[in-house]
Amino acid sequence: MSATPIRAGSEYDPSSWPEARENPGFAGDTGEFPGLDEDGVRGLSYVGERPADGGHASVAGTLPYQVATRDPEAPLFVGPYEERLEKVLGRYPDRQAALLPALHLAHELRGYLSPQTMDEVAEKLQLPPAYVRGVASFYTMYNLAPVGKYLIQVCTNISCNLCGGDAVLESFLKHTGTEPGEMSANGLWTVMEVECLGACGFPTAVQINERYFENVRPEDVPAILERLT
Amino acid sequence: MAYPYRHDSEVRLLSEHFGNPRARTLEGWVELGGYRALRKALGMDRAEVVNVVKASGLRGRGGAGFPTGMKWSFMPKKEPGKPHFLVCNADESEPGTFKDRELMRWTPHALIEGCLIGAYAINAEHAYIYVRGEFFEAAQIMARAIEEAYAAGYIGKNILGSGIDLDITLHIGAGAYICGEETGLLNSLEGRRGEPRVKPPYPAIAGAFRYPTAVNNVESLIAAAQIVENGAEWYRQWGTEKSTGTKLFCVSGHVKRPGNYEVPLGFNFREFIYDVCGGTPGGKAIKAVIPGGSSVPILTADELDIGMDYESMAAAGTMLGCGSVIVMDEGTNVVKQVRRMVDFYAHESCGQCTPCREGTAWSAKILKRIELGRGTPDDLDTLLDISDKMTGKTICVLSDAAAAPIVSSIEKFRGDYLALMEAGDLALAGAR
Ligand SMILES: Cc1cc2nc3c(=O)[nH]c(=O)nc-3n(C[C@H](O)[C@H](O)[C@H](O)COP(=O)(O)O)c2cc1C
Ligand code: SF4
Ligand code: FES
Prior knowledge:
Oligomer: heterodimer
Order of helices and strands of chain A: HHHHHHEHHEEEH
Helix content of chain A: 25-40%
Number of helices of chain B: 17
Shape of chain B: globular
Strand order of the largest sheet of chain A: 2-1-3-4
Bound molecules: flavin mononucleotide, iron/sulfur cluster, FE2/S2 (inorganic) cluster
Largest sheet of chain A: 4 strands, mixed
Structural class of chain B: alpha/beta
Mean pLDDT of chain A: 86
CATH class of the largest domain in chain A: Mainly Alpha
């Protein structure tokens, strides 16, 4: 496998991963699409490394929302982040429309949205702070409090549930020694239930930070956790 | 994520290039005949493009099945200073649905082409692709493809020398099922809470930023591009009179070979499940099937001898929805699964309408009580009463969707409910 990390500083290095069935989270090819490897399915080498300034304005708002490297103290909207916000602003008829992308940028950088962070976003976009909080709290992907370095979201909705989603969730909780939504003492893990991830044919689907793990079985969990650390 | 299966009965128009990483790249896509549809469309009148899609009978693949060409024809005449927008709904979050993700990650340029053709047809100068936030991987592939297409002059100013300017912007959601509902999506795009709007006005009159807008699903736009290239008659050779063409069906739950399969509409449902999808693992009997995503009424194993098309599904008392087939074998605790779906709707209700906000929450509580063996037969009447009050009375149909599995499961699996009540504290022992 010749995979390029999707983003500079990405915590995933797929090239070091074992193949096929021993590779939890990527069960490999069924044999009906010869020669497909993980890169082929995920398009890693096609995407390559996205530029820090966000690249073309049309897509500058689209970097990961939850990465392992974060800094809750980092200044917002400076350097490449400012560039990206400027590009995003140019794509909509008004400033308000840049709110979700701006919150994504802040979230990506700081790992969660503190009241202070939301206020800074409000100021930057000239929106009322209460309005920004009202919007941010509507969406489940914006964490309003710090989470573990790895945010593990296990789908327990119907298709995954039929194939053992609850047991996968249990397994993650057991192996991280946490309760749902609680950060582990070492700051590494937060495990939560999540609604359908749109990967229902590959149960159980688990999202860890920005990446999907699929066909996860309860017994795969230790290997997944080990790989992450 | 095993890359899944295919089957000889499939007619792979949309999914022809699934499993071929080369098709993802601009170079590969053009080699395979990509962007011919766009060239052809730009050489046609806008009205002609709309008419071909109308004549093909293509119906929206996002769930409601509204004819795509008709939707485009509702767009008003362009007035100076009043932009039009095309919005592609790539929010895919109906439980059981995972087709748009595959379309985006295997054939991102097909979606770009679909957006460009749709935008041209409705005289829009800007198309937004609203991708659900969790689809990081698909969004990164789309981002790369959009950059490639801008650099090669397929998007931007004076595309392909046609004198037409067309922009595409990728917009990422932030986790909320209700943003799949088209007016919730538009609010979300505008930087608001994703709460559905009261209609009318419909998006064609006051959509994104209150300007005329068409909202189309990923699969609809890609199919429309193929129709423009190959003609309405070509498309009508598949499917039935009123449900034309092919559709991607997402199969999950208790089947041997889960995944996406593309078959002509009208395909026999039983044959689909047993032959194309290989039946259940271990050959167990099927207990229930949800044919169109978690929002549609459940079918029993005796009700599978029907066509997979909009009309046949409606005649069977359910809906084709977005083609998301969820199979449950004989060991399934239907009550638990219905409770899980209703929990989902309770979580995702935006809370604007009382029947939906209260109805989903209370139904979920009652169902949980029944699941734990503490229900009484009266609870079923209460559930049916609540469901009735949730149906047809709210701003959007999330409320109706939540009621559908409750009503159909009580009707068809009443025995399962009663058995849990009789089992009392033993109910949990048999849960699955
Ligand atoms: C609660 C709810 C959720 C929906 N979710 C989606 C979705 O995830 N994707 C989608 O394309 N359409 C979804 N729809 C349907 C859209 O409102 C709209 O009908 C569709 O995007 C129109 O595109 P089409 O005509 O191409 O199907 C949803 C509708 C409702 C009521
Ligand atoms: S029906 Fe439910 S989800 Fe739809 S607008 Fe009303 S409260 Fe919101
Ligand atoms: S039900 Fe788990 S990903 Fe859809």
